């Protein structure tokens, strides 16, 4: 077997091997069952509750959960804006990096509090260490928020009839201290021992083999990279992200960082089974997500390993596959593997430049973000999938002539209206944003020439990718796009806000409404939602919604590029 393919199989095998026990552990955390780490973290949690004036035992309804989530995000937004626009005179700035402009600070702040980490700057030159630490804190907070709100939905699905679904602050603190923090510590240690910097000193001065003096940026990189991967955040300490050897020194760290992308999203699916005591349901959801993931991974890997058609026509050998924009230490297959992992989740980190990928991989990476529920982000990945479950249940109920029910609760008009609005929001934000950018560029291409390094089909793909990444809270980019402009900073910032909070509000509202309804016991006519038949139904709904929504836009971009490059 090809060693590159073996590496892909081993990586995913390790993910699954770790995700199942982690899912059991997360289930215990959300169910408040005792774990061996309680002696360590109970005092720490109690300190946070005392300082914050929080009563972790107070039960909250779904509206109170959303108010808590949105309120604390407003506070974090203000703090982040103050730090990023004043870095030049604040401490921990040994390299003298400048403060951000208002529009860039707005984009960056929104990006990190929404778990997107879309970066219109290069971290080593655009941020002080205080700025990096502030964003690293948001990477914990945004991931913790996603897990906490997902836990609330789990509780709503668990209860037969209840107006309350746990305590948001308690779920949030426990997610950060008992899950994200210890895992990040382990990963940071692995990176540190493999050469990733962890220091507060400024740039290092080295002499190259050619005898030239070079200044190398460094900083608290290992800690930053650990939570960027585990929290499906994706924001790089350096501009090239994990393509930079300081963030990702070797093949071992590449495997570790790849595993981290999928670890918690998959574990959350298994945690659902442990919380609800419906493990067959969690395996059904996992199977649907995995079928979708493999449908994107396999074409991407094959395409990158076969090489670029255009380069082949020049008579240049591509024994290693399509290596443009890729690191030799990883190779074509591992780069395509990472690209699929990072776009099937809301991670967005890269170990190669997606702008240089073949058109087929361009299609698969875009589809991963457009569908946005094949594993998805930490917590919110399941929330996106939950919407398709509701749609699948409703359509299946209509097909068999029964009132749609999910876990003993009738799905009625109110829930369906919310589900449809959330399902349509994602394509609306992507397509309207891309249409606006295309119109502006077409009207004045000379004035906006800095936007696109590659006009034509690929240029359209760059703009489509940027809005898709923003709406999927992903953060990766086709980096041929000149995106640090007021238009791109503000437009994608607005898209990120809508795309983060409305898809959270919708599923939480549906789950809360269903939780308060009377429980209907299962009967012989009840639609089973933990079967392969229902799983295929949900998969079909996902494919149809994605195909109808995005096929025209994909035709104008990577599909057209594929056919014209032959």
Series of secondary-structure elements, N-terminal to C-terminal:
HHHHHHHEEHHHHHHHEEHHHH
Question: Distance N terminus to C terminus?
Answer: 29 Å
Largest beta-sheet details: 2 strands, antiparallel
The secondary-structure class comes to: mainly alpha
- What spatial form do the alpha-carbon principal axes imply? globular
What's the tally of helices?
18
Q: Strand sequence of the main sheet, in spatial order?
A: 1-2
Low-confidence stretches: none
Alpha-carbon Rg, integer? 23 Å
Beta strands, count: 4
Strand content: under 5%
Helix content, binned percent: 55-70%
Averaged pLDDT: 93
Describe the protein in words.
The chain has helices at residues 3-31, 38-52, 62-84, 102-113, 123-126, 129-158, 168-193, 221-230, 251-276, 279-306, 309-313, 331-344, 359-371, 380-400, 413-443, 457-471, 486-515, 532-564, and strands spanning 204-207, 213-216, 405-406, 409-410. With 566 residues, it is mainly α. Strands 1-2 form a two-stranded antiparallel sheet. The protein has a two-stranded antiparallel sheet with strand order 3-4. Strand 1 and strand 2 (213-216) form a beta hairpin. Helix 1 packs parallel to helix 12 and helix 14 packs across helix 15. The mean pLDDT is 93.
